[in-house]
Amino acid sequence: MDEQAGLRDVPAVVAGSSVAGVRTTAARGSVAVTADSCFRIASLTKIFTCAGLVRTLRDKGVPLDTPAVELLPGLAPDWRADARLTVEQILGQVSGLRASVDAATVAALGSGDGALLEAARLVVRAGNEREPGERWSYYNGNYFLAGSLLAVLSGTTYESALEENILVPWGLSRTGFATPAGPITGWNGTAELPPLGYPRTRRPSGGLWSSVSDLLTAGEVLLADRALVTEVRRARTRPDDAMTYGLGWALGPSGQMYLNGRLPGYRAAMVLVPDRDYVSVALSGQESALSALARLLSAMQRPLTGDDIAEAIDDFAA
């Protein structure tokens, strides 16, 4: 961490790694932080939504290639998307959906229990701009659909389904949608930002708070579920796509799984190397810190893989 010049002026940074369950963590910055300090993790939320949905489908014996409209009958009257669109294509960001539903539109739907399904309705009502599977394109609307699928299949709200299927079984006591005690606030340069709200309708794509310790646990548990990790790390993209992508994760040249997330005042990034039982994560209270976090995580995994993936982590679309 001390070698990364881009981290020297960041108020709060925490990073950690787990190699076969043996952990190392470190923190720096003018704000006192530890591995248990909670940050907004932004798009890292998608890995939890994805894992929850894949596990729920598996438990119910529903194939990933099931057309999504069959699982969301309440949206059928408004379904203008391709009827062949599968759950797998939604999670893999190869849905081909028209990316026309923005953050402000879904935030205006309110915070009732039915608001997320209404956000999903807007997504499928907009239809497709290309055939499912034709091209990778990052779109948060895919995860409004994924969260709705998880809720409907579980017979409860998205938040309750995620808690019951992932957060509690995995022992993630510092991870949740409610603002935790003593959260790390975000910064823009030297200015501390006011507390950040996050619309309920967008939660499946980026609403969680979490800590380095909990994210290391999540990575360890995920890697221990060999069937799950095999499923999510299988590429759903074509060779000429902008990147290689599985379900919720970008894929590196030596089988790394990685992603980053951003919100005003926050950056988060995570790398797994499944074949080496390796997890690493870095959280910061500064949105501009991504390049330094990417170099840090790349340097940490490089002795295991020989790859420099800093540019790939930095360029990821979150």
UniProtKB/TrEMBL annotation:
- Stored InterPro entries: AmpC-like, Beta-lactam-related, Beta-lactam/transpept-like
Lineage from the top down?
Bacteria, Bacillati, Actinomycetota, Actinomycetes, Kitasatosporales
Q: Check the record and name the Pfam families matching this protein.
A: Beta-lactamase (PF00144)
Task: Give the domain of life.
Answer: Bacteria
User: What positions does the domain Beta-lactamase-related occupy?
Assistant: 21-286
Q: Which residues cross the membrane?
A: none
* Gene3D superfamilies attached to this UniProt entry: DD-peptidase/beta-lactamase superfamily (3.40.710.10)
Identify this protein by name: Beta-lactamase-related domain-containing protein
